[in-house]
Amino acid sequence: MDLSSDLQASVIEAAGSHTALNIVGGNSKSFYGRTPTGTSLEVSGNSGIIDYQPGELTLTARGGTSLSEIYSVLDEHKQMLPFEPPSFGEHATLAGTVACGLAGPRRPWTGSVRDYLLGVRVLTGTGKDLRIGSPIMKNVAGYDLFRPMARAMGTLGILLEVTLKVLPSPACELSLSMDCTLDDATAWLNRWQRESAPISAACHLDDTLYIRLSGPEQSIDSGSKSLGSESNLIDNNFWKELNEQRLAFFSSDAPLYRVNVPVTSRLPEQAGRWLVDWAGQQRWLYSSMSLDEVQLMAAAEGGNACAFRNGNRTNDVFQTLPAPLMAIERRIKQVLDPEHILNPGRMYKDL
Amino acid sequence: MPDREHFINRLKQILPADRLLLDKDELIPYECDGLTVLRESPLAVAIPDTLEEVQAILAAARKHAIPIVTRGAGTGLSGGARPFSDALLMSMTRFNRILEIDEHNRSARVEPGVRNLAISEAVTGLNLYYAPDPSSQIACTIGGNVAENSGGVHCLKYGLTVHNILELTILTMEGELLTIGNATGDAPGYDLLALMTGSEGMLGIIMEIRVRLLVKPPCAQAILAAFDDIERAGDAVGAIISAGIIPAGLEMMDNPAIRAAEDYIHAGYPVEAAAVLICELDGSQSEVAESCERVVELLRNSGASDVRLSRDDDERARFWAGRKAAFPAVGRISPDYYVMDGTIPRSALGIVLKKISAWSREYDLRVANVFHAGDGNLHPLILYDANITGETDKAETFGKRILALCVKMGGTITGEHGVGIEKLDSMCVQFDADELELFHAIKHAFDPQGLLNPGKAVPTLHRCAELGAMHVHKGKLPFPELERF
Questions:
Q1: Contact between chains at B287 and A198 (C-beta distance less than 8 A)
Q2: Residue B279 in contact with residue B249, Cβ under 8 Å?
Q3: Which pTM was predicted?
Q4: What is the pLDDT of residues A214-253, one digit of tens each?
Q5: Cα gap A65→A48, rounded to integer Å
């Protein structure tokens, strides 16, 4: 149902009365970011797929459309959301997925949410209904303000509609596990990727390397052969369990840190309990270290860290930005949401 | 003494004489970029060599309120680097060092004046390359690529510049040095990396770029297919993509483009065909073999009259040679040509080509079409003779109509060449007043004095209103108080 005019009216009213809004889609990721505050604005009713063109690889849907509805139409045409987003429950919406900007195990090989965002229809903090980007692959007219909507956590606008590029699902997928240290895993992954092995996921946990291969049947066959005889075949469902954080590793109420660093970064093993995903680019950590300490450790490697789940969520949870950069981000927020009513403080205290 | 003279005097203190061009004769080569019809002499040309020099130039420009136009190799096709008589042109070509190659993380940190192709050349020994390959890649600089979000024939599979860079170091107009993005590709905060990419030098000065490097595919093969009907060729593209195959490149040429290219290159193109498709597949040996077989079958089923599979890399290069030489080939059959750059949903190809050919008769100007068919990016080449009075204007009017049609079909006025100064009027067709105001506000957030490449990429609301082309949004005309005729 198209609820854009109702939502517009709510935003205009909130702007007039300086009422902070807590934008709620499927409420599946309320744990993420800083603690939500403000009056709840339900947006999940604004849902429905508007246009899906399998031959053009594009899909446009209203923000409140559930991921499950999107998957069911994509499945019919053997296509997928290339960034493999986590759902964290049954009710995840498209807009929430884009706003959080989270991607799954495939991310290092196929790209992130923003890489597949082609356009948005967005309500600004003054209730302006804007279309930025368009449902085509190549578009360099005007500033790219649609990609920044990904991972902005609703602080720059309410996503009424989202247009994404989709990709064909791989014809075949196969998952393997093998015993090895993290150092060996890093070296092997590097070598296999240099040999163009069809890897689409790679994670290391408890001295075991898990790999997924994707592609046409023949290349999966030859790929799995070249990966050695030491490997065991495992269920492809492993990656969903990892993505949805349902592996035993994640069964803790302690603060969970996400650390993004270059593949080759060596982070101290004794920092805590690690799960290394994305071939090394995304690492999950349970640690007694404070967020500041984890962020310092990541920054020293050219990366960043956030408190992904649990712990204190009243302070900033994402990596602190240098002051001149934060100043520009504040100005951008000011342009799109001058009354500061769209999820204020959800991403950073100042945004 | 007027501000300009103070400014020039200050530049003379910052730069040695050989890197500050002031004489009329020296300024001539800088009067335009790749869009040669629009020329203007800059106030002066500065060729800085160090970050400190750029910072000093910016400080002087701020103090004296002198605008700055930044330029790379000047190959852009929309006038993004076209100077103004009251602005300084700052050439970044001396920033041409590759600073770091990180083999294991597959990235390279480079200065903005490094040529696109030079990056791939520097890492070819490591079996790596930088994917975006605009046709000017021998000459164009990576800084310019970022400013324009350049594409190329391989962006269907490998993406545009925005998908292939990880980190930028920029100088804001206020002189602040900022790092945007990071080496991991997942940075905190807003995605300013995307916002900077394609911002046509209006938000900041790019000082360093960390690009993503890819492993060279072990195998590549090309297929050349001829069609008697151009719409069938368009349908074949849809059939390939719907079948789950993403080719590395998927290009189409219409009959006038085929003939011009064949006359010039002798690539063996079928000159009677209404259209040819060139489809390149890459990946592992087995993947390519499997995909080629399927694509050949799909092409035959889509009504291709002739399908050829490249037997070796030489033949593959020959298939591509005609397409890659399409622009100069057209240059041989017409004194002048005007390259358009609209993008449309592929399903609209038939309607758009029919309209273009009707307008071609109406304006009595020939058109050849080359098409990045996989991603819907159409390059109609309008043939004209600038020496015939009125033909240049006619070609421009024709071009604007094509772009308006692209917008009407759900597409955009520019797929990869940028807006620059060329497509300002067409921007009024694509965006409404609220959207244009937003763009101006974003520029103001980065550059409050409005000194970086002012007047490019985003038209003033006044210009659009005067043009009468302002998009009517939901039946409401913007600025109802303005009189319209």
A1: yes
A2: yes
A3: 0.94
A4: 998 888 888 788 776 678 999 999 999 999 999 999 999 9
A5: 5
